[in-house]
Amino acid sequence: MAPIVAVTRSTLPGTGLERLGQVAELRRWPEDTPPSPDQLRGLLTGADALLCQNSDHVDAAVLEAGEQLRVLALPSAGYDGTDVATAQARGVVVTNTPGVLHETTADLAFALILMARRGLLTAADSLRTGGWTGSRLDAYLGLDVTGACLGLIGYGEIGQAVARRAAGFGMTVQHTLSRRPDDALSRAVSLDKLLSTSDVVSLHVPLTEQTRRLIGAAELASMKPTATLVNTARGGVLDESALLTALRAGRLHSVGLDVFDREPRNGVGDPLLQHERVVALPHIGSATEATRARMVDLAVDNIIAVLNDKPPLTPIP
Ligand code: DGY
C-alpha cells in the first residue's frame, strides 16, 4: 500500500508534488485558505508524512492526531511555528530547506534596504498620484547606501549573502549574534557597538526564546537617528509597538519589513504598516518561481528519503 502524505495546500510551486504523487498517495487540503488546527488534525489522521508550512503552526495537539506520522517536511528555512521538540519526541523526523533560499531572501533584504534608504515607495506613490509636478533638487531625497555601514544581526547563510551584496555597494559590514568571527566581508562586533554605529541594521536571526523581542525600545534608542532598520527574519525578533513609538518620536530614518508579529497581516488602517517611513511587504523573502520550486523539491526529497528508510537530506537537529 502506498504511504499517505498529507499536504496542507491545494497547490505548490514547481513539480515536486507530481513527483511525490508517483510514490505516495497525496491527501491534499482542497481549500485556498489554510486548514484550521482541527482540520489539520483530520488531515493528519492516518498520514505517514506531512508537507506543511511553518505558518500552519503544527503544535502538540495537532501532532497527537499523527499517530502514524514519520516525517514532517517544511519548505522553509525557519521552523519557529512548528513544535519540533514534541514531533521529535514522538519519533517524527522534521526537516527544513536550508541552502536553497538564502540568495533569493538576501536579494529581497537588499531591495528593502534600497527602498527604505532611498524613499522609493514614497517617490513611486508620488508619481502615480500626480505628485511629480516639477524638477527640484531638494525633492525625493534619500540617504546613500553606497559607502554606508551595514550591521547584520545574525550571520548565517542569509546574513552572509547580504554581506556579499553589500561589498558591491562599497559598504562597511559588521555582524553580531553569530559564532562566526571576522571574515573578508564582515567583522564581528558586540550588539551594542553594531546598533550604535551602523547606518543600516538588517535582522537575520531565527526566532528563538533568546531572540524574541531582541530589538526593543532600548535597542532602537541606541541606533543612529538616521539609521534604517530592515527585518526579513521573523516579526517576533522586533518589538513592533516600540518600533512604532520610536518612529512617531522621529527616530530612525526608515524601516523595511517583510515579516510581522502576526501574519497574515492586513495593512489597511495599520499604523505601523501605513507609516510614511515604513516599507512593508507580505513575507515574500524567498518568493521567486525557481526558489519556491527548489524549496518544495527539497521538502519532497526529504519525505521520500524517510519513507524509504533513508536518512533525510536536511533534518532539523
Ligand atoms: C523561511 O524560509 O523561513 C521563510 O521565511 C518562509 O517561512
Q: Please give the CATH class of the largest domain.
A: Alpha Beta
Measured as a percent range, the helix fraction is 25-40%
Can you tell me the number of structural domains? 2
Strand content: 5-15%
CATH superfamily of the largest domain: NAD(P)-binding Rossmann-like Domain
Chemical compounds bound to the protein: (2R)-2,3-dihydroxypropanoic acid
The fold-level CATH name of the largest domain is Rossmann fold
Strand order of the largest sheet: 8-7-6-9-10-11-12
Structural class: alpha/beta
Low-pLDDT stretches are none
Q: In brief, what are we looking at here?
A:
The chain is of the alpha/beta class and 317 residues long. It has helices at 16-21, 37-44, 60-64, 84-89, 102-118, 120-128, 157-168, 191-197, 217-222, 240-248, 289-307, and strands spanning 4-7, 25-28, 49-51, 71-73, 93-95, 149-153, 172-176, 187-188, 200-203, 228-231, 254-257, 278-280. The model has no long low-confidence stretch (mean pLDDT 98).
